[in-house]
Structure formats: structure tokens, C-alpha cells
Amino acid sequence: MNKEATLRRVLESYAAETPDGNNTEVLKKWMARFPDYASELMAFASERAHMEHLPDEEIEGDEMEAFLVHGRERFRQLLDASKKAPVPISSLAALVEERGMKKREFARTVGLSLSLFVQLDKRNVLAPTVPSKVIESLAAKLEVAAESVRAYLELPQVAAEGNFKAEVRPEPLPQVDFGEAVRKDRDLSDVEKRYLLE
Predict the structure, then answer these.
(1) Under 8 Å CB-to-CB from 79, ≥6 apart: which residues?
(2) Is the dihedral of CA 37, 45, 148, 188 positive or negative?
(3) Which of 47, 152, 167, 184 is the most buried (most CB within 10 A)?
(4) Which domain holds residue 12?
(5) Tens digit of each residue's pLDDT (9 = 90 or more) over 19-50
């Protein structure tokens, strides 16, 4: 059997073992089992992830290229994030600064607006409503475990800072559903909103 036929069989077997879509653990197992085809398996899984998340309507040109690049990056991030051990996080924004990035720049690289990232950082979003793909993308870009980000988002809201004339510090605003925050966000495009809400 030639190498091309073997590669095809490996890819088909991986796809058969993951009928509901990519699975990080299964992919790592297959890459370890067939190290000669590891890059092909990664490319296949990446393209498969793109196909699963394509919007219903046609997109073209630069928007399609950005969508594909984002999908490939996200898949690599998922694999990397799954390897990290959980550590406590004191602030997402502080981690961004430690990594030498600006908050706005970081937010865009993970498909969020600055205001949505700040809401997550202040824990103004109900943690159970934040999609796993957002948590995993944040974790991968921050080079921490997804469980660390999830645990951070589940902590109590960040209290308001600063000096106040009133004797009592103002109460934080009620937490919002992630979907609601995305739909109300004025800085995200319709394509970005669809991706985040899928």
C-alpha cells in the first residue's frame, strides 16, 4: 500500500471515530499513533472545523480568508490549551498585559470586542453562558488551561473601583447572559456575532 493510500485510510479512520466533529483527545491519540501523518491529521481536523462553523450564507473575499485563518488558529489553540495545567487567574486583563499585549488588540485576536472582553474580565457575564470555544480561545491565547479561565469567570463580580462621594460603594450591575452581551455589542460584525452565538 502506498503512502497516499495509507494517509487516506488514516484520515478516514479518524473521521469515522469522531462522527460528531473533532475531538482533541482523539486527535492527539491519532497523531501519536501515526506521527508520520501528524501534520496531515492536524490540517484535516482544521479544515473540518472550518466546514463545521461556516455560516449558512455565502461570504467571500477578505471576510472568508479572515474566517478561515481564525478557524485554523482556534483549532491550534484548542490543542495547545488542552495540554496546560490549571492555575488560578487574578485578572484576564493583567494576564494580557503580562503577555505584552494591549487589551483591544488581544480582544480582536480572540474574536471579541474590547467591551465584551472587559465584561468578561470584570465577570459581568454569567459564566455558564460563556461558550466553551470562547473560554478555550482565551485560554490558548493567554497560554493557560481552559479550566483556569472557566474558574476565573465563575468567581464573584469585580467590585467597582475608585473614590466615591457616597458612603456606600455602588453595587455591581446585574450579570448578563453571554448571548445578550454579544447581540447588544456595537463593535462586532454580524459574522463575528454569528460565530460567537453558534
Answers:
(1) 24, 27, 28, 42
(2) positive
(3) 152
(4) 3-52
(5) 888 888 888 888 888 887 777 888 788 777 76
